[in-house]
Amino acid sequence: IIHEETPPYSHSSNGVAERKNRTFKDMINSLLLTSVLPKYLWGEALNMAYHILNRVPLKHNMSTPFELWKGRKPSLKYFRVWGCLAEVLVPKHKRKKLGPKTVDAVFLGYVETSYILRFLVIKSEIPSIEVNTIIKFHDVVFLEDVFPMKTGIPSSVSLDDSLAFTSIPEHVEKMSNVGVNPSSISLTHEQSDEPRRSKRARVIKDFGK
């Protein structure tokens, strides 16, 4: 390997590297602005930009760097929106029997050597997982249209999202067999715009007059 030097302050002498650096800078800036994540996470944004560009076809041969290196086309089915909200399912040995099973986190990217995902914890009620720490998990529900640093964390997650972790076993009892406080159940039936009126006949009372 021969180390070649270029004249100082002459970017055109090293045009290929300078252009690639500009591409990475623009992608990092776009990711941080879209997700409204702090600037100190620029390294995580750089890793995501690197992960994306390795799976984008090159102009001169219409092949991706991943395909040229691995000999096969990359899959994009696992791609998620960077910086979106994620409900991370915490393993049983890291949580208590009674209490929340998930933590709110922001998606930061992938681990190159495995299928593990990286997250920044922004809300946690589990003692073993602290806020502002980076965790690596796989079981997660993504809310790709929600950016918590921009819009905040939604007050609740839809039922379909909460059941996306695993299917309900057949031996679980139905809700009708379990004692549930009716006042804690929210009604979801569509209400009519017209107020409901009593059907009982009105009787005028004289109260002894």
TrEMBL record:
Q: Which InterPro entries does this entry report, sorted A to Z?
A: Integrase_cat-core, Retrotran_Ty1/copia-like, RNaseH-like_sf, RNaseH_sf, SH3_retrovirus
GO function terms (MF aspect): nucleic acid binding
Tell me, which GO biological process terms does this entry list?
Answer: DNA integration
Q: Output compositional bias ranges, type Polar residues.
A: 179-189
Domain Integrase catalytic positions: 1-73
Locate the region Disordered: 179-209
What's the protein name?
Integrase catalytic domain-containing protein
Q: Which organism is it from?
A: Sesamum angustifolium
